[in-house]
């Protein structure tokens, strides 16, 4: 029945693609193709504009700097542009397939003026993309940062449609979705926990990152696996011309990066390391309760690339990071990510480009009490391995076809607790290992239909197998009343490798763009997304103890359908960009929890879960200034995020824990001179929703506040607002010097505002029969910092 339902839309879609391809195929066509790179270091440029001056027809370079234009033989002027670099023109006579590789030189003046980069300054209007933001690392490094730590995730939280639950949360929420509904990719490898230091910083070393792109709407068919967004982070490839090094010493950590050619002009490598040193200061304390504590994180990133010949390139990249915390030998915990990516780029011909990728990703976390009669060690882990191939066929200058497939194997170890030496009372607990297999195939066509109208339409077919991870693996069904803990019934046993349940989903995607005039356009998009992995957590922010769970026989895949409509306009000779986007997102099979849910080491975890629907809708406004000494942006989001879960709030919609009605960010960067740069960030948002108790009960003489009704998230904590300031001083050096450096002075939360992270309740000290509310502020004062950065080339 399922396959018969899929048959018709698949046939219709393939016929559409075939007709499009057939229409686009014309005789007497040839190609202009090649790579666009930076002249200083040989780094490929993602999203550079390549177009013909005679008719304006063009393309943007892909993630590896490759472009291809289909043209009729003749004389052309090819223009290569990227914001922050000098434009290059090449006059050529095309008779056969022609290769043009271009190295663009930086335009120092323009770089100082640019805040957010794109493939040409008019991309806001002309691109098919909507709900997409691309941040330039040079701009991120100029903005004020908490304790001087430049942070990618904190920077994207300043964009429209992006929010966070508060201080100490490096995760982010997109258009009313949860932190687990964002696919975070580092060189195409998924990162399952992007936070350091309990969420204050992210795992991305800013020195090692080349490109950051966030997609929250109009998601292309090549992406899947999450409902809300794609955060695509690309690492630097390394200087292919010369050895260089850079780094910094800050309040929290020290960074160092080195890059050099493997074979000059053909290959290069880059290695970056970062480590915090709070633990080193703790050891200097005379207080034994402090000097035995451990608190630090570290990162190690690396990448190498090699050009075999004009048609073949290899890339190998990896990341390893860890957080470690120990409290006076009484308690300890750590967590970390490890990723590895191997890629092979191949051009079959000037019109057909392919990237084959192998990915490994591991996320593990643990906690324990090292000594004593209650000593134990608890560990958990998720591992995935992926193989995929992504093809791009440049059919013509107005038609680009993308298609590919991938397969991913998952291993989930949700928890194992073993008693440590000296333990006399703890019983070992091991939750069953679970496996999963995810497959996907996609096809996507980007087509210019008329001079004003373009469309991008695609289809993704995904499937997931829930697989037994060990022999004698038992699964249950659950019976009971919604809103209460359910009982396991009908046990079934499986051997290792047995497929327990299979799901198949179609995910159509379509985007339209209509150009009104040279300065404005209207865009619309629809996309369905499917998510087979679920983060089990009853906190608002990601924590090291959260457990990733696969789709099972009881936990269905999460589904989302999103519609978006936007108006985009440039004005004042492209000095300003403006956009307003409206969106509506409907989500199915969303997970929530019964009151008092027990999630830690629970063999019947699914008995604690509730399922239902969610919806989010809103308007996003974005005004950005591109050029001049003063630049920056203003973003404002008006939105609503709600859930409807059987067993909660009388089965009616209630605010989700990510719901924020208003979210405002103002970013300003002022280049006063060649030596001084100043920047400021102001943020304001509605407080997150929470549940207040309306009753209490007593246990052994202790009064416990309790919500006696079935309501959820019926109150809000106070609103959030903060102002940060920063100044950068570029030190003087002799003309022609290979060494450069700067000092960054910043103040986070300059007016000492105590933003509440949460509200908690406790009995009044004088009258225990009275319950009073207390606010918890993670940061309640201004935090100054100084960072020294250097670069040697």
UniProtKB/TrEMBL annotation:
Compartment(s): Cell outer membrane
Keyword Metal-binding assigned: no
Domain called TonB-dependent receptor-like beta-barrel: residue spans: 286-749
Signal peptide: 1-24
Keywords in alphabetical order: Cell outer membrane, Membrane, Receptor, Signal, TonB box, Transmembrane, Transmembrane beta strand, Transport
Single GO MF descriptor: siderophore uptake transmembrane transporter activity
GO (cellular component) term, any one: cell outer membrane
Protein's name according to its UniProt entry: Outer membrane receptor protein
Entry keyword Transmembrane: yes
Membrane topology: Multi-pass membrane protein
UniProt family annotation: Belongs to the TonB-dependent receptor family.
Provenance organism: Solitalea canadensis (strain ATCC 29591 / DSM 3403 / JCM 21819 / LMG 8368 / NBRC 15130 / NCIMB 12057 / USAM 9D)
Main location (coarse class): membrane
Transmembrane region(s): none
A biological process from GO: siderophore transmembrane transport
Domain TonB-dependent receptor plug positions: 149-226
């Amino acid at each position: 029945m399922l396959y018969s339902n899929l048959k018709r839309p698949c046939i219709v879609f393939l016929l559409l693609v075939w007709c499009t391809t057939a229409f686009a195929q014309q005789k007497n066509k040839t190609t202009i193709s090649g790579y666009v790179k930076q002249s200083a270091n040989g780094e490929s440029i993602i999203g550079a504009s390549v177009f013909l001056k005679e008719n304006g027809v063009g393309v943007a370079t892909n993630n590896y700097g490759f472009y291809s234009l289909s043209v009729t033989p003749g004389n052309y002027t090819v223009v290569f542009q990227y914001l922050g670099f000098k434009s290059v023109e090449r006059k050529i006579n095309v008779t056969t397939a022609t290769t043009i590789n271009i190295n663009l030189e930086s335009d120092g003046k323009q770089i100082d003026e640019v805040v957010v980069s794109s493939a040409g300054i008019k991309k806001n209007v002309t691109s098919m993309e909507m709900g997409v933001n691309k941040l330039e690392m040079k701009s991120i490094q100029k903005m004020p940062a908490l304790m001087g730590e430049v942070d990618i995730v904190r920077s994207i939280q300043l964009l429209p449609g992006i929010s966070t639950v508060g201080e100490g949360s490096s995760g982010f929420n997109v258009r009313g979705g949860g932190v687990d509904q964002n696919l975070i990719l580092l060189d195409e490898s998924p990162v399952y926990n992007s936070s350091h230091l309990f969420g204050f910083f992210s795992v991305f070393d800013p020195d090692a990152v080349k490109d950051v792109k966030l997609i929250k709407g109009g998601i292309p068919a090549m992406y899947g696996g999450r409902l809300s967004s794609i955060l695509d982070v690309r690492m630097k490839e390394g200087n292919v011309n010369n050895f260089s090094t850079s780094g910094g010493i800050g309040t929290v950590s020290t960074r160092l990066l080195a890059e050099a050619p493997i074979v000059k002009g053909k290959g290069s490598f880059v290695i970056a390391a970062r480590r915090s040193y709070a633990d080193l200061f703790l050891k200097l304390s005379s207080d034994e309760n402090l000097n035995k504590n451990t608190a630090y994180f570290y990162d190690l990133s690396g990448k190498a690339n090699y050009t075999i010949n004009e048609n073949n390139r290899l890339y190998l990249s990896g990341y390893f990071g860890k957080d470690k915390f120990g409290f006076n030998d009484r308690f300890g915990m750590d967590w970390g990510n490890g990723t590895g990516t191997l890629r092979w780029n191949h051009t079959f011909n000037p019109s057909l480009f392919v990237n084959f990728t192998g990915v490994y990703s591991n996320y593990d976390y643990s906690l324990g009490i090292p000594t004593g009669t209650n000593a134990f060690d608890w560990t958990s882990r998720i591992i995935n391995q992926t193989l995929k191939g992504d093809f791009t066929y440049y059919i013509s200058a107005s038609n680009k076809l993308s298609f590919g497939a991938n397969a991913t194997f998952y291993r989930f170890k949700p928890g194992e607790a073993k008693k440590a030496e000296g333990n006399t009372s703890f019983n070992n607990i091991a939750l069953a290992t679970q496996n999963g297999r995810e497959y996907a195939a996609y096809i996507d066509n980007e087509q210019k239909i008329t001079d004003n109208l373009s469309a991008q339409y695609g289809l993704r077919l995904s499937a997931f197998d829930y697989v037994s991870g060990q022999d004698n693996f038992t699964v249950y069904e659950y019976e009971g009343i919604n809103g209460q803990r359910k009982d396991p019934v009908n046990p079934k046993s499986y051997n290792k490798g047995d497929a327990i349940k299979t799901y198949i989903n179609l995910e159509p995607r379509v985007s339209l763009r209509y150009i009104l005039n040279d300065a404005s356009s209207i865009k619309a998009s629809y996309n369905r997304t499917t998510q087979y992995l679920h983060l089990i957590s009853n906190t608002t922010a990601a924590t090291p103890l959260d457990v990733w769970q696969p789709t099972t026989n009881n936990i269905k895949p999460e589904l989302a359908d999103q519609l978006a409509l936007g108006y985009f306009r440039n004005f004042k000779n492209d000095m300003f960009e403006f956009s307003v986007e409206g969106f509506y997102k409907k989500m199915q099979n969303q997970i929530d929890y019964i009151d008092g849910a027990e999630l830690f080491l629970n063999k019947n975890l699914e008995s604690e879960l509730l399922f239902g629907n969610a919806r989010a809708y809103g308007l996003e406004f974005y005004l950005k200034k591109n050029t001049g000494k003063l630049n920056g942006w203003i973003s404002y989001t008006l939105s609503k995020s709600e859930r409807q879960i059987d067993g909660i709030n009388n089965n009616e919609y209630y605010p989700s824990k990510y719901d924020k009605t208003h979210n405002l960010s103002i970013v300003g960067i002022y280049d006063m001179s060649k030596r001084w740069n100043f920047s400021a960030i102001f943020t304001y948002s509605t407080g997150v929703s929470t549940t207040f108790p309306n009753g209490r009960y007593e246990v052994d003489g202790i009064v416990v506040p309790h919500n006696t009704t079935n309501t959820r998230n019926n109150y809000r904590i106070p609103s959030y607002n903060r102002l940060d300031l920063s100044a950068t001083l570029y030190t003087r050096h002799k003309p022609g010097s290979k060494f450069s450096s700067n000092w960054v002075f910043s103040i986070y939360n300059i007016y000492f505002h105590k933003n509440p992270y949460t509200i908690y309740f406790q009995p009044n000290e004088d009258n225990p029969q009275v319950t009073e509310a207390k606010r918890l502020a993670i940061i309640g004062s201004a935090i100054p910092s100084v960072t020294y950065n250097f670069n040697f080339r």
